[in-house]
Amino acid sequence: MKSRLTQQAGVAVRKLRLAKGWTLQELSEKSGVPLSTLSKLELGQSSLTYDKILRICSALDIDPGLSLLQNSPAPLPPSARRAVIRKDEGEHVSFGDHVARVGAQDLLSKNFTPMLITLRDGDGRRQTLPGEVYLHIMTGCALLHTDVYAPVKLNAGDAIYFDGATEHRLHAASSETCTLLMIVSGDEGFWRTQGS
Fold this sequence. Notes:
Shape: elongated
CATH topology of the largest domain: Jelly Rolls
Low-confidence stretches: none
């Protein structure tokens, strides 16, 4: 997920590193933070632990009491864009074994992707998703299976938040129709390939 805070921290580290004329490899050697971690940080694809922030600040010779974000550009003003999705609108797609309607699919570079999903009775296939996932059960009952936790039964009105990179399986818990709102962080276009 590329949060604004993560992107700003990455821009700040890159700016400070380049001001010293260092390569990523040099910053890695001076800070002890792996090259791949620094690269992901500068690309806004990863956040850092406090320990790594201290090591990077020490290597760059900046006071860790000062925010790295003081060295990043000011955040962009709100874009004022919006998308209204009327009842039964949205791009209809197959989503694994289920049917989904993707909202605001015409907007690019979103921070999250909303989907209204109708779960079919059956086992559902195992899958992973980019970023973090929020599910809110609107009608019926669903079962969520992961390799990390015991299966969880979710009834209408229940919700769950989890890491989409965790392999999971989602399906209706009975023959009753189950509809849910799923919000996935990021705008990867992942839903275009889920039906295949």
